[in-house]
Specification:
Oligomer: single chain
Shape: elongated
Helix content: 25-40%
Order of helices and strands: HEEHE
Structural class: alpha+beta
Strand order of the largest sheet: 1-2-3
Radius of gyration: 12 Å
Number of helices: 2
Length: 59
């Protein structure tokens, strides 16, 4: 497994942050909750992108 490319974050830190993301599906609509901007940026640095057409609820 490659080392984390996120400065100041370990792999464990990334996994803990990602564990708080809640994704629900209601019919054909996906809802993504509990995603902080820091976590969203971290996921994008790891090449995990959330579709812009989805409904995001930032807390």
């Amino acid at each position: 497994m490659a080392a984390s490319t996120i400065k100041g974050e370990t792999i464990d830190d990334c996994l803990i942050d990602a564990a708080f993301i809640k994704i629900h599906k209601s019919g054909t609509q996906w809802r993504i909750e509990n995603i902080l901007q820091k976590t969203k940026n971290m996921m994008e640095e790891l090449n995990v992108y959330f579709d812009k057409e989805r409904e995001f609820i930032n807390k």
